[in-house]
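pls ignore typos typing on phone
adenosine monophosphate + seq
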Amino acid sequence: MAVLLRNPKISIKSFSSCISRNFSGTTLNSEIDLKVPSFLSKNSLLRRQETKEGNVQWVFLGCPGVGKGTYASRLSIFLGVPHIATGDLVREELNSSGPLASQLKEIVNQGKLVSDEIIISLLSKRLEAGEAKGESGFILDGFPRTISQAEILEGVTDIDLVVNLKLQKEALLAKCLGRRICIECGRNYNVACIDIKGENGNPGIYMDPLPAPPQCVPKLIQRADDTEEVVKERLRIYDEMSQPVEEFYRSRGKLLEFDLPGGIPESWPKLLEALNLDHEDKCSAVA
Ligand code: AMP
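k done
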């Protein structure tokens, strides 16, 4: 693989305990390096990745439906690091019989954001469980989603790279409405065929549906928050609460902007290229 990965500055365990401690308002662990990086161009950002050893600590940003989960999970297999999606953690909790379940269901089904306190607690638990299994490095998907979450994260560890996936709003809505999930294997599929013509100098986009294999077809469900009304609210909240996070990382020279050129067959090789990852491994690493 072309990218040499780096040793994380702190272990996942100390990350998870620091993240909880920092959130509860006490001081940061002094052993953590809080350096703010100087501005780096896209190319120097990627050159920086090449010189590292250890595991990546990456974040995926982007509007609901853009495909963060799809590309983050593929990359996690490719790079051998866990893909941690806070939306999955929230859904696991709301489907459990835990004390937060009904409160979370109400918030998520209205398209609102869960409180930072709950998200940090779910993320800390997930990181601790990973640490116990020997995991290191991560690709975070859906976190941070607010400036305060980004500040907390910055206070406890050094994020190497933030990938900002971009797609036009019309396609995002269609992708969310067409999304189907297999309740057994958890994989995401899509019934939407997106064909948006370019106009007024804006490029068009074509995305084939992503059909489920026969064994998943009888087990497909739609997310309760993938209705038109709720998706529009989630997109509005993204613009209000999460878009500023893009600028947070842009100003620190960590943001890699990636406009999706189409569906997975067109986008995956281009994303690997943009990340300066070795194309030779891409077919064998990801089914
Ligand atoms: P997602 O699967 O990323 O679309 O997340 C589903 C829902 O989980 C979101 O609409 C929020 O209600 C909640 N959620 C996930 N991640 C976060 C986060 N970092 N902060 C607040 N709420 C979140």
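The two ends are 17 Å apart (CA to CA). The chain has eleven helices and ten strands. more later
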